Give the backbone structure.
Amino acid sequence: MRKTDSGRYDVLVVGAGAAGLACAGDLGTAGLRVRLLEADGAVGGRMRTDRVAGFTVDRGFQVFNTSYPQVKRRIDLKALRLRPFTPGVLVHTQDGLRRLTDPVRRPKESRDLLPGRLVSGRDLLALGALSARDTLAPASVLRRRPDGTTLTALAQAGVSPHLVETFFRPFLSGVFLEDELTTSARFFHLVWRSMLRGTLCLPAEGIGAVPAQLASRLPVDVLRTDSPVTAVTRDGVVVADGSHVQARAVVVATGQRVAAELLPGLRVPEGRTVTTLYHATAGPPLTEPVLVVDSRRRFLNTCVLTAVHPHFSADGRALVSTSLLGSPGPAETEAVLPALGEVYGADTADWELVHRVTVPDALPAMPGPVPLSRSTRFGPGRYVCGDHRATGSLQGALASGARAAREVLQDLDGSS
């Protein structure tokens, strides 16, 4: 016999990731009776942080961008105790490490932008023009541009194939989690703009502090964890414990695979998978908090996390994060340490692999052309939100959750 949750809610939100938290928060603020159901024991979805062998490790390498409009609207940045990465990227080339940075922010560190080092004079002009257009243009203008692939957009901007292969493909493979650069050109321009205008950081307690902060603002009776939803019904949902929770509207704010299971007929994009290796070492191979990419693409990116936040380590050892596309096998994993030794100029023989995490569907595929935002309405009283309905980013997830809340309020007001 099925149990019934006490009372009937205005809205049930399924999934307490960033999108679900934003949606539930906005609906609650509007005065609706909301229940937020999360399958796991804590909020965050893919934005989770674990403590492993005395280290603070996120579930996959993640950075926090301060320029996102939804972040500015919802997050108390000071409370996160953010530490920034150095603006720019170190690129490992056949000539060693070369720095590509914003000369406006770090003019003294821009010598590698001189012609003949990392970029040619023509590429420098093309890169400057691209960056100026994306930085100065309103986001709404970038969203309305004709869409295509990132690779085509770079060619149209005058970027040479050499710079694409040396920098853009290695770097953007780690951003989009695909190395063909087929991702939407409009999304690329928005991402490039956000990186130039914002600061990439890490919270002191890891990326999980972001959804935890959103959850802390919900009334105490809204969130129920350890409550996986098994079915969406005509008048609510069924939870794994057999309880039936009733509501006027249901918002599915899970990842795309679960959403497709709960809402038969929902079309969802493919997901991108990433694996992150966490190595502990006696001393840091690099003391600067900077992202490093490899022009030979033996990995997506690497960085010394304890150079960003020293207390990510409890025993004083350094923690190095390295990410790879997909779920690499033993041979690919074993090849990482020699590559890191070459890139960092360090002896990696005593590096200890303390954690490995593979994140399926870490990002939704966004091959261009693609809409950057979709309605969350799925059917009468049924809604779906998440980064797979917008853009593969924290901004996209939060914006989709906010849109779901707006559309629910419009529909409930119209039906009352």
Remarks:
- The chain has a mean pLDDT of 94.
- The chain is about 30% helix and 25% strand.
- The first strand starts at residue 4 and ends at 14.
- Residues 394-415 form the longest helix (22 residues).
